[in-house]
Protein 1
Amino acid sequence: MPTLNLQAKKREVKGKQVAKLRNQGQVPAVLYGHSVKPVDLSISSVDFDKIFKAAGESTLIDLTVDSAKPVKVLIQDYQLDNLKNRINHVDFYQVRMDEKLHAEINLKFINEAPAVKELSGILVTNIHELKVECLPQDLVHEIEVDLSSLKTFEDAIHVSDLKIPAGMITHHDLHDVVVLIQEPRSEKELTDLEAKPEEKVPAEAAETEAKPEEK
């Protein structure tokens, strides 16, 4: 993957005044890290959106602040304004290349499961992101999961089946199921589920549960 570069400027504006920055197409941000003094920044919202789509939260970015030498960072956190559909704030974490870090890598599911295509099975995904530990240079944007091995309702893909890149370890149990196939439910099963009344707690039992224990 090519190096991702992002330009930022030191920011003096704080508090309620940052609203003006957002209206000017800027995103307030902060840079911090191990033994790194926090620095308030502003970045172009257009530039950041492009970088975020390519990097996500598990890809290194070369961040240049004003005219300083670029530093390696990860997008540690961000705040999203759902009403205006824009990012309101970003946290950049400056990494040390000799220090292992914890990250979550997106799983990219590729190909079609034969049990879905041929047997009308239901694909059930239990893990979407893999928790890993590695040096910054060993980070990857995503890990592919090939679904073509799911041929029957008994088949499943476990963490141990994933092709985890060299230099990276996962903190998931290797027996954890990433994805599996469920048999399709019959029309009768679906009808029974819709017709099944909700379980209600008897009034006397409810009063007993609600009544505090006497001391």
Protein 2
Amino acid sequence: MGSGRLATPMKISVILCTFNRSQSLAKTLDTLAKSTLPESVEWEVLIIDNNSGDATREVAEEFCLRHAAHFRYIFEAKAGKSHALNRGILEASGDVLAFTDDDVTVESTWIQNLTAHLNNGKCAGAAGRTLPERAFRTPNWLWPHRRHALAPLAIFDPTFGAGPLNEAPYGVNMAFQRRVFQEYGGFRTDLGPGLGRGIPGKSEDTEFGNRLLEAGEQLQYEPSAIVYHAVPESRLRKEYFLAWWFDKARADRRSLGIPSGMGWTIAGVPLRLFARLGRWMLAWLVTIEPAQRFDRKINVWAICGEIVECHRQSHAPTQR
């Protein structure tokens, strides 16, 4: 059980990157301040302001004055969430680093439950359960059988229980031992939100998790480490989901590189991707059931994202 007693004292740093969300940030900080941990555990929350233009500094600094024992404000001028994440890693003093976002609320046991498995030396990282805010209802135009159907809303809610995790966690609810950043590096700065035009705004978190899994590191899923993610109306639109999956496919293809062994290419794009695109376009056009039809349209948009990124990579030097 994730809420079990910690074997030995440790220090935990929670890294919270924020950009122009001063109102939701205040709500997130309020819930983090109510965290309950054993007295033997030292913990801190680092608020990494990624050059916000709203009242973020004022909100964060005022909060740090009221909770000086556990909260620190840090300004990172270099635009892009990956830069802010890496700054947080550099500034953190914890043996374990946990990560969340500025538009969530966390349960009081979140830090404790998420990090409980990381004090025995066996697990390199952990992921918790991320749910939509309590009033959320899944749109009827989403096909429920799609794996990670709610990923565009940052929802991570596997059907299996606590135990080994064989997929990368989402950045809103994950933690790692500090040593993995020393061994495998930080978050890639050619992936993630806010890095500039033409750079995919996704996968800086999952790329890092996949890096650890490929190296043979062990990750743990702990469903009792619960975070509730805000779901604004602007995201409950088909256009948002299509754009998200397009960008996600671009980011994943940038992470993995152009697929090998796929034969001939045109303009750097494997012909097999065009064949897949044709098959899914046909499936989309002939499907009648609305939710399944939209799901197949998502596949079309995702393959288009892969094609765009393959073309880009064939005309640009490898970015790492």
Protein 3
Amino acid sequence: MATYQSIRYNVDYQGNAGSLMPLLLFTSDGSDATADFTSKIDSTYDSYLFIYNNIHPETNNTNFSFQASIDSGSNYNVTTTNTLFHSFHYEDDSGTPYVAQDTSRDLAQSTSFTVLIDSVGADNDQNASGYLHLFNPSSTTFVKHFISNAVTNTQNDGAINCFAAGYFNTTSAIDAIQFKMSSDEIQAGTIGMFGVH
């Protein structure tokens, strides 16, 4: 079973804008269908930063994605609109590097999971790392924006850098976040959750 622990820290905290406060750390045990953050997402902080490191999938050529909840994690199905673009380059320098919008990952008023990075390889040395920044999730007035930047070494041995952004089209407070692969399990990696003042 994966572990979720409060992150201990020694900080001389002055409340400066942009300060990161460590809150929770998910550590995969090698057999995690999902990584769920169902506590500490509240009005304490203006925004939340999730940093994921060395996420390794069970299945080759799978996507790392997320969704939000407004009912403490009972359902992850908040209506979302987003966009994603990426840059790509093969490690053997074959082909032509490119930058392109990936319209197959775009959502328009959908309750599907948002892809943060696609084509993650499952070789022993392959993984994905990046961050997700969620803005003002406790607002009951405005929609909730997010941005993400991530990198992976892909199933076909290339480097891909994905940029995703969008919003949850709800004025209800978001109080939980779930991460998962598009198929099978997360087999290694950590996800840290930080509050941002």
Protein 4
Amino acid sequence: MLFLTVQVAVYPALALFFLALAMLVRQPLLKLLLWMISPHFMFRLMFSEGFIFFSRMMGLNSPGGLGTSMIVHVVYIIFFALWSFPFLLGFAAVYHDSGIDLLWLRHWKTNKGFLTVGGAFLFCVMILLFQPSYSDTWRQNVIVDQSVDMNTESGRVVLKSNDYLKHLRVHLAEKDTVISTYDREILLKEFTFNRTPWVLLERTISTLGDSSTTFDMMVKIHFKYRPRTFTLTYSGGKNKLSDIATSFVSNATEHTISLKWESFPDTSMLIPLHFKVDKADSITESIEVRFMEMVEPVRIEKELANIIPRTIFRRTEVLRRMHDLSSSLVQ
């Protein structure tokens, strides 16, 4: 850890320091106290100020599938087991070196001790069985996911959660429904979106080239509401992109260039863009716009749950080389 920073290296150094002191002192109770102090610094490093931010991000973007969720939990268990294992070995060393029966551990090996521990475990299980899974502090997240494919004008309303949607009350199209199944994702409705467009894209394109094509573009975008996020991507497929120039921050690879805005950008945007596609005369344009407003009015109710609405508009179009200035208007 010293290769990262000196500050980070202090935490394992302090852990080893207190483990070493626990082995050097001869007083058994002092040995036990020093061992109990030793893990504090390593776990303080793990549960630092950034842990809350990381936990919130994991909660909002946690995996939806049961198999993926199980894998993530197994990884967590293995990671924290390995993180804690040196201190368990440290306790074994301290216990062996003390020469006495610390914490009366030998008494728990008897049948009486086994029954006592087993009874305490069952008692805790019975208490937890009657406790609610969520509280005002820990609430279930239910996502009302509405998506619209602007290419086909088709849309879907889907309810998603990492936990069961049972007992969820849904109010849709003047109908009330109570979810009674143990599902984590439910398709509520499919619809056709042929109303006033929420996304208007107007572009001016100038192309030049022979074996490769240079695109000079001016993209004007208008939104009905301020979007939560907006992503504009251009892909050359197997063909490489080069000579990329834009006044906005972008994430560019050999084959794609992606421009992304977060935290509610303005309802009107003007984006200049210049790039070259090697050995090709076309480029694939993809847009994804995420709104907090809902296309289809849906009201969700459930105790101790956060209802998170979102509407995502997606569209893909292939832009081909043109030998003169042109413009197009796209919903």
